[in-house]
Every structure is written in structure tokens, then in C-alpha cells.
Design a protein that fits this description.
about 35% strand; Immunoglobulin-like; 13-stranded parallel β-sheet; 67 strands; 3 helices; about 725 residues; mainly beta; 14-stranded parallel β-sheet; single chain
Length: about 725
């Protein structure tokens, strides 16, 4: 009983002080209900009974509701937050779909059809999204979906606005024996902009189609354009694909693995927002899961969304012949918080967040925006209209839009991890701030890697050199397998970054003054990189002040900075014991890290620090082991490093040669995550496999067991 008691204690201390009401699937919506033994039936009815400071506890179940939270009555003098949350350890789902009543009829080529009476724009089988029928084929959320080179058609240079001509090579439009007239083309023909347009004319076996023109946003880089086609029965030819004919109200589908449709539970999306909060303040929503819907918060302040997991939050209505961008997850207001949430599988912007003094922390955004239809400032996570936002410890992994995070004024972007972003558009960056929002912005301790666009960017308008930002800071970031850091503007602070194995240049202190690249007063100090240049792809003189940087390609002979780091292949970016980076930096009272030794080290990490920061979303158990699980040929002197579990304040480390008989070697505070085995009397042997585990303990006593990891030492 002890674990349950601890859970309930942790839970009860966070409840509000007002009345507690209950909701359950088997409840009743009546004025006499709402107790634990006689709960309400719907969440909306429960919310309608609340006053400010009350708590609504929701029991496990699937709630197919469009919930609206208006301003609540407030009889109390103080504004205690109103809590709306799941009952402890119970799975509450806010559902944006409805079960489909079907009568399937077989057609050739594995296609089935059924009449349905409801307009749907997203289709699920056993809660797995099926692919909107498209050509060239690409199954949803697979690598093919994110590969524009092989699963889109490429625009020939003879194309023009309103006329898309398919260039030879790759999927061939002229080999299609059907007409795509009336379908919708999703086209990246605006460099960092993409558009959805109805195809007005296409003849089978033709290599071109015409479409409703775009206008001035059609980009001059015609040869870089690409497209795929959706929303036509002519596209339906592959398992998992579906099409809905809204005029005939007929659903067409090719089930996976040759199965009959009746073997699946089929559902269709009928709403975008499961919860809408409008002009209501001091609301705390916790522990709710969203399926095929999301939340919409407008003109509301002091709102917290915590511990919520959102799958398929937004999706386009192209299947209903609507070409507008999908409605996104929206959070508008001041002093709002998004905490420990996950967003997976969205078409369209992953999050639109605006307002002053907000916080987005420990959130995961993955598989976001496979069509990128939108406007000038759309991106994976759009926080452009914020001021003094804290954007911390988040992960953005796999997205189509050219920009991962577009920041606002005086923002703090730290401990974030961005990877595989910008896959389906040109231009862009992992974290980008426009010229009029650069002043006071700080980007620090981020990991940007395996990323085809620029890493960090202070941007300026390309054709107006009079507009540029100043006084932004990029420090202690690690950049690898990406494109460079690019601060446009002037008087920036580029300190203690580690950058290596990037495309041509690691740090580009942009000096092209015709395009906003001034940097005559920018200070570049204590950076460890292979190449630092005044240009993005070629070596040019670096403007501003260059102080105590270690540049690998200027060494004699040239060296790679990675050789002086402990093990960058396993994300251990600390300097080696004999590294020239140690104590070689210059001190700056504002921008140098707290250092060990005689002077700051060059690069993002200090030698000897037992708090090894790791960027990105932190799950509940300990994670990200170094050495990585299964690693071989490890030094017997290897330190153990890990990411402590989310919100843990201490952790217990177990170690040994047998997975079922590990010995506890120490208990440490959460910030002490570098375990030097020799300090605990342990000397690993050569050619031996070792097992280790880290259990995370919370302040209230709850312990979350970590996974079992192992590695093998060198022989």
C-alpha cells in the first residue's frame, strides 16, 4: 500500500481549496450529482457547475465533447486556480472523433467503400491515422512522408504561377493514367512558403497541371519547387489510404494487410478543439490526453496546461476541399504555462503561443506539419508574438516547416533540442528570431543536430539592409551535423559555443551588409569550432571582435574539434583531460559561464563539472545514458552520465556485472549526474559487460525506477 499512499499524498497536496466535483462515463448530469459515488456524466456539465477555485476530477474514459470554459463565478476574494484534471493514474481522453456506422462494399484493387452521414477530414482504424490518399504515395508518419526529394514531384524551371510542369526524374506525372483535375496540389513554390491550390486542369499522361494562381508570394526560385497531390479518388491506390467524397458522402479505403474493414474500429475526426477557454483566467488543466483534437485558449491569462499528451492535434480539411491551413493548437494570453506536454502527428503548426511572461517547458513536439501550408510566419512552434517568454527543455523532432521555433521579444531559449526539422521547405533555421525581436533574446545551452537548415539565426529582411536587430546572445550551444549559427544584425554576443561537423561553416558571423549582415560590433568569444567565417558557405573575414576562439581549421596541421571532446558520438561534449580548450578562454562578467580552474574553458562545457546539462524533453524515468545502452569498446575510466528523471530531486545509482544483482553505489542530488566510479571504490575490468540503473526520487517520496542499461569495456 505504500506506493499508493505516496501517490495520493503527492496528488492531494496539489488540489485546489474549493469544492471537489467528479465526472465519470457512467455518471449522470443532474444538480444532485458530482460526488465521488454519484458523478456527473459529461465534463461540460461539470465545468458549468464550477466556481473559481473548485476542482473537477475526471475518471477514466473517452469523452467525445467540445468543451468550453467561460469566465467562472468567483465568490472568493482571492483567485485560487480552478483545477480540471484526471483522477490519479486514470487515462482520460478528450476525443475529437466519432465512431463510424459503416456498410462496406468491395471494389477492385482492394478498395472498399461505405456511405457515412458525417463529414470527416481525418480517418482512423484502431486509433491509428490512415493516410489521406496522395500521389506520389507516402504512408503517413513514415520516413517517406518527410522525403521531398523522392516522394514529391519536382518543378521544372519552365513553370510559372498557375502552371506546374513536372521536371524529369523521380516520380513521373506523365505516367499517371488518370486525371487529377479537382484534386488539391500542395506545393512548396515559395521557398519558405507552401500553398494548397485546387488543380483546375490535368489530363492523364500529361506532365503538367494548372491551378488557381498564388500571386506575389510565388517565389522566383522556380527550380526549387516541389509538389504532391491529395483529395482525389484518383490518388487512392495503396494500403492505409482513404478518400472521402463529401458530395456523395462516401468513404473509400484500402485497409492494411489485405484485411476486411470490419476487422477494424473505424473513427472519423469531426472537431478540431476538444477544450476552448475564452476570457477565463486562473485555470489549471492537468493529466488529460487529447486524441484527434487539441485546445484553443484565447484572451485568457494565468492558464496552465500540464502533463497532457496530444496525439493528432490538428489536421487539414483538404478532404472537404478546403485549402486553408489547419487550425493549430492555440494559447493566447499573459502569464500562461505549458508544462510537460507532448504533441505528436500534426498537420499544420504544432503550437501557436502568444502573450507576455509565458513559459513553455519540458514539452515534446514530434512529427509535425507534413504539408506546411500557411503564411509568412508559420513554423513548427510559433512564439513570435510573445515577450519575455521562457522556452526551456523542449524537443522538436521531425518537422516539415522551414523554421522550428520562431521567437519573440526578450525571449529565453535554453536547453532545447532540435533535430530533423525543415524537411519540406527551403530556407529557415532551428531557432530563428526576426530583426525587430532580437534585442534582449538569449539562446543558450541548446543542442541542434542532424538538421538541414541553419542552427540558430537572428534574421533580417533580405532586401532591406536598413532593418536589423542588435544585442542578441547565443552562448553555450552545441551544433553538429547542421548548418551554421547565423547572427545577422550587429552588437551580438556569441560565446562558448561548440560547433563541429557542420555544412562548410560552423559559425557564420554574417558580414554581407547588403542583406543585414553588419556585425561590426559583435563579440565572438570562447567558441570551439572547426570554421568561423563572415559568410555562410565560404571563408570570409569575420567582422567584429574575435577573442579566445579555438578554430580547428586554423591549426597547423588542421584539426577537428571533435577529437578534443570526450565522446561526441555519444553526446559527451566535455573537453578531454588533455584538451587545449581547458582554461583557455577569456572571462566576461555577463556572458562567460561559471568556470572551474584558472579561467573559463573554450566551448559549451567546463572540464570537471559534475552537473552535465542535457538539452531536450525529459521523460519521467532517468534517460539518455552515457555510455549509450549497448555501447562497446568503452574505456575502463568512463564516467557514467544520465538525464535525471523529470522533477526528481535525488537519484539512486545501481551498478554491477549481473542485471539481477546490482549494488547501490550512491544517492546523489539531481544536479549531480556525472558519476565517477573510482570515487566509489569501483575499478571496472577490461572486456567486461556492466549493467547500471538510475531510480529517480521525488520530493514527496515517490520513486520511479529507471530502465536497465549496459555497456562493455575495451579488451
Amino acid at each position: 500500500m505504500k506506493p499508493l499512499i505516496l501517490i495520493l499524498l503527492c496528488f492531494s497536496c496539489r488540489l485546489a481549496l474549493g469544492t471537489v466535483y467528479y465526472v465519470a462515463i457512467n455518471g449522470t448530469d443532474s444538480p444532485t450529482a458530482g460526488t465521488s459515488t454519484h458523478p456527473f456524466r459529461t465534463i461540460q456539465y461539470g465545468i458549468d457547475q464550477l466556481t473559481q477555485g473548485d476542482t473537477l476530477l475526471i475518471r477514466e474514459g473517452r469523452y467525445e465533447e467540445s468543451i468550453r470554459i467561460p469566465p467562472l463565478p468567483s465568490p472568493r476574494a482571492s483567485l485560487q486556480p480552478t483545477m480540471i484534471k484526471n483522477y490519479p493514474n486514470e487515462n482520460v481522453i478528450i476525443d475529437g472523433t466519432t465512431a463510424l456506422k459503416t456498410n462496406w462494399r468491395a471494389h477492385p484493387n482492394g478498395i472498399y467503400s461505405t456511405p457515412i452521414q458525417t463529414n470527416i477530414w481525418q480517418f482512423f482504424a484502431n486509433d491509428q491515422m490512415q493516410t489521406s490518399a496522395r500521389w506520389p504515395d507516402a504512408t503517413a508518419w513514415t520516413p517517406a512522408m518527410w522525403n521531398k526529394d523522392t516522394h514529391w514531384i519536382q518543378q521544372d524551371s519552365t513553370s510559372s504561377d498557375g502552371l506546374f510542369i513536372d521536371a524529369p526524374g523521380g516520380p513521373e506525372l506523365n505516367e499517371i493514367h488518370q486525371s487529377f483535375t479537382g484534386a488539391i496540389a500542395i506545393m512548396n513554390v515559395g521557398s519558405w512558403l507552401s500553398f494548397a491550390r485546387t488543380i483546375t486542369d490535368h489530363k492523364k499522361n500529361s506532365n503538367y497541371f494548372t491551378y488557381e494562381s498564388i500571386g506575389k508570394q510565388f517565389h522566383h526560385r522556380i527550380q526549387q519547387g516541389a509538389a504532391f497531390i491529395e483529395a482525389s479518388l484518383a490518388c487512392l491506390n495503396t494500403p492505409h489510404e482513404w478518400f472521402f467524397d463529401s458530395k456523395k458522402r462516401a468513404l473509400y479505403w484500402i485497409p492494411p494487410n489485405g484485411k476486411h474493414p470490419t476487422q477494424f474500429n473505424t473513427r472519423g475526426k469531426i472537431r478540431t478543439y476538444g477544450i476552448t477557454i475564452h476570457k477565463a483566467d486562473h485555470i489549471h488543466i492537468q493529466g488529460l490526453n487529447f486524441f484527434a483534437c487539441t485546445f484553443n485558449i484565447r484572451h485568457a491569462n494565468h492558464i496552465t496546461i500540464e502533463d497532457c499528451h496530444i496525439r493528432y492535434p490538428s489536421y487539414s480539411k483538404r478532404m472537404l476541399k478546403e485549402t486553408e491551413k489547419p487550425a493549430p493548437t492555440t494559447f493566447r494570453g499573459d502569464q500562461n504555462t505549458l508544462l510537460n506536454c507532448t504533441f505528436k502527428y500534426a498537420d499544420g503548426t504544432g503550437l501557436l503561443f502568444s502573450g507576455n511572461n509565458g513559459r513553455i517547458e519540458n514539452c515534446l513536439f514530434t512529427q509535425i506539419d507534413y504539408s506546411c501550408v500557411g503564411g509568412l510566419h508559420d513554423c513548427m512552434v510559433n512564439v513570435r508574438d510573445t515577450e519575455h517568454l521562457v522556452f526551456r527543455q523542449n524537443t522538436l523532432d521531425t518537422g516539415g516547416n522551414s523554421v522550428g521555433i520562431k521567437g519573440g521579444s526578450n525571449g529565453l531559449f535554453e536547453l532545447n533540442r532540435v533535430t530533423h526539422q525543415g524537411l519540406l521547405q527551403h530556407d529557415g533555421a532551428a531557432i530563428q528570431v526576426d530583426y525587430d525581436r532580437t534585442n534582449g533574446t538569449l539562446m543558450q545551452k541548446n543542442w541542434i543536430h542532424d538538421h538541414i537548415k541553419f542552427a540558430l539565426r537572428f534574421d533580417t529582411p533580405w532586401l532591406d539592409k536598413t532593418l536589423f536587430g542588435t544585442n542578441g546572445a547565443m552562448r553555450q550551444n552545441v551544433i553538429w551535423n547542421a548548418r551554421p549559427i547565423v547572427p545577422k544584425g550587429d552588437a551580438h554576443h556569441i560565446y562558448n559555443n561548440t560547433a563541429f561537423n557542420n555544412d562548410s561553416i560552423d559559425i557564420a558571423i554574417f558580414s554581407d551588409q547588403d542583406h543585414g549582415g553588419y556585425n561590426t560590433q559583435t563579440r565572438t568569444q570562447n567558441n570551439a569550432a572547426n570554421q568561423i567565417s563572415g559568410a555562410r558557405t565560404t571563408l570570409e573575414p569575420v567582422p567584429g571582435r574575435m577573442i579566445s576562439n579555438w578554430i580547428g581549421q586554423t591549426q597547423s596541421p588542421p584539426k577537428n574539434i571533435a577529437a578534443f571532446l570526450v565522446d561526441p558520438s555519444q553526446h559527451d561534449f566535455r573537453p578531454k583531460a588533455d584538451s587545449p580548450l581547458i582554461d583557455a578562454g577569456a572571462y566576461h562578467p555577463q556572458h562567460s559561464p561559471t568556470y572551474l580552474g584558472n579561467a573559463p574553458d573554450i566551448g559549451a562545457y567546463e572540464f570537471g563539472d559534475t552537473n552535465y546539462w542535457m538539452a531536450g524533453y525529459i521523460p519521467a524515468p532517468a534517460s539518455s545514458p552515457i555510455p549509450q545502452c549497448g555501447a562497446t569498446d568503452q574505456s575502463i575510466h568512463r564516467d557514467l552520465i544520465f538525464q535525471p528523471g523529470y522533477q526528481a530531486n535525488t537519484h539512486h545509482i545501481y551498478y554491477g556485472t549481473h542485471p539481477t544483482s546490482l549494488k547501490k553505489i550512491t544517492t546523489e542530488a539531481a544536479l549531480h549526474n556525472v558519476i565517477q566510479l573510482h570515487q566509489y571504490g569501483i575499478t571496472p575490468k577490461k572486456g567486461t559487460t556492466y549493467y547500471w540503473q538510475v531510480d529517480s526520487q521525488h520530493q514527496c517520496g515517490k520513486v520511479i525506477a529507471g530502465p536497465l542499461w549496459h555497456y562493455t569495456t575495451q579488451r
